[in-house]
Amino acid sequence: MSNSEIVIKLVAEHFDISKDTVKLESDVFDDLGADSLDSIELVLELEKNFDIEVTDDEIDNIRTVQDIVDLVDNLV
């Protein structure tokens, strides 16, 4: 499973929605309804699943699912 597939799976599970509704271009806040707590929880999931450490600055730069995939790709 690719990093993008894993990220989409994690995002879908976090928001309790179908993987089919999560697109790389989906805006985490506008399209998926995330708030700041969701972003923190999602980052914790990413850190655990990919064994990475994400900084606060990196969290602030996340808007879309693609941003999350890019971040993971840069850190693994």
Characterize the structure shown:
There is one protein chain. The chain has 76 residues and is an all-alpha fold. Helices cover 58% and strands 0% of the residues. The chain is built from four helices and no strands. It has helices at residues 3-15, 36-50, 56-60, 65-75. It is globular, with a radius of gyration of 11 Å. It starts with a helix and ends with a helix. The mean pLDDT is 93.
Q: Can I get a quick summary?
A:
The protein is mainly alpha-helical and 76 residues long.
The chain-level mean pLDDT equals: 93
Pick out the low-confidence regions. none
Task: List the total number of helices.
Answer: 4
Helix proportion range: 55-70%
Order of helices and strands: HHHH
Radius of gyration: 11 Å
- What does the largest sheet look like? none
Number of strands: 0
Shape: globular
- Strand content is under 5%
Derived structural class = mainly alpha
Please report the distance between the alpha carbons of the first and last residues.
Answer: 14 Å
